[in-house]
Write a structure and sequence with these properties.
Elements lengths: L2 H8 L2 H7 L24 E4 L3 E2 L11 H14 L5 E7 L2 E6 L1 H9 L4 E7 L3 H13 L6 H14 L4 H8 L3 H10 L4 H8 L5 H7 L5 H14 L3 H12 L14 H14 L4 E4 L5 E4 L5 H10 L3
Parallel strand pairs: 2-4, 3-5
Antiparallel strand pairs: 1-5, 3-4, 6-7
Helix pairs in contact: 1-2, 3-4, 5-6, 6-8, 7-8, 10-12
């Protein structure tokens, strides 16, 4: 890819589209009978039946209700924002961007759709589709992370280059990519909106997957705030001081009781039991409010 095209990508999708070469440089490219295509920057009416979906489209989840709402709007007012396609041959196009608009237009019963027609090779297609999707406000964090990963792996980009493409600093790109190292259960919760990006940023600071899953359970069960999760994450990462004789290892039954109490009180409860069956229960708290919460649960 030329330096000029790479610089265009750094400006975003619209800049690249404006810098692209107009499709159909001469009428003989696809033989006789090739329909006219308007000059670069102009809108063309393309038959929907002639458009195939972009195989590099990173987004696969489209909200049915939102599509229906858009389709109803298209029926009343038409499609205001054209899609963008590239021409493959006479009467055959491939979608570059605007799959949601294309789906809604089909749902609305349209037979043709306004479109910009561009030329782009496969790497440009992928970059353009990914950049457009990353710039969407309603894209969930896992979809963004997967798009970043694809740009790095399939477009051979470094994190700094990726940051330039999507106007993000390297630390932001890194944080998104680290989400993909979380256990699948947590990734699914982020995708489904059960866990926010703030919660996720706190979880990725924890190195132990079991501890991540433990706090994740508390988030989904008890609705812990981001601040609370950050406090728990710091507490769990704090090194344990080893002083004197080490306690006896806990039996499976005692470990289960400890886990159940930890879940009940939303904190890391510790049980200590000696060989005579004597011991203690430690319930740590992170603040006066947290102590009040625990005391209330104990009916104190």
């Amino acid at each position: 890819m030329s330096a000029e095209k790479r610089n265009a990508l750094g400006k975003g999708l619209s800049a690249l589209l404006n810098d692209s070469v107009s499709v159909l440089p001469n009428k003989n490219d696809f033989g006789t009978g090739t329909p006219e295509v308007n000059p670069m920057g102009s809108v063309n009416e393309i038959k929907i039946s002639e458009i195939e979906v972009n195989p590099f489209q990173p987004r696969t989840d489209f909200d049915t209700d939102a599509l229906t709402e858009l389709a109803d709007s298209i029926k009343l007012q038409g499609l205001i924002q054209p899609i963008t396609v590239r021409r493959l041959s006479a009467h055959r196009y491939q979608l570059i961007s605007g799959e949601r608009r294309l789906r809604a237009s089909r749902l609305a019963g349209l037979t043709s759709i306004p479109a910009y027609v561009r030329t782009a090779n496969d790497q440009q297609m992928l970059e353009m589709a990914l950049i457009e999707n990353i710039q969407r406000e309603n894209l969930n964090a896992i979809e963004v992370a997967l798009s970043f990963q694809r740009m790095i792996e399939e477009c051979n980009l470094k994190q700094e280059e990726l940051g330039e493409r999507v106007s993000k600093n390297r630390s932001t790109v890194t944080n998104y990519l680290r989400l993909l190292k979380l256990p699948p259960t947590i990734q699914a919760s982020i995708r489904d909106g059960q866990v926010s990006m703030g919660h996720a940023r706190a979880l990725i600071t924890i190195n132990d997957p079991d501890k991540q899953l433990y706090i994740h359970k508390l988030i989904t069960k008890d609705g812990l705030s981001v601040r609370k999760v950050e406090e728990l994450a710091r507490e769990l990462q704090r090194p344990v001081k080893k002083e004197g004789k080490q306690p006896e290892p806990l039996s499976f039954q005692v470990q289960k009781i400890q886990a159940d109490l930890a879940s009940k009180f939303s904190t890391q409860v510790k049980l200590k039991v000696n060989s005579q069956g004597k011991g203690s229960i430690e319930i740590p708290f992170l603040s006066e409010d947290d102590l009040s919460r625990i005391l209330e649960m104990l009916d104190w």
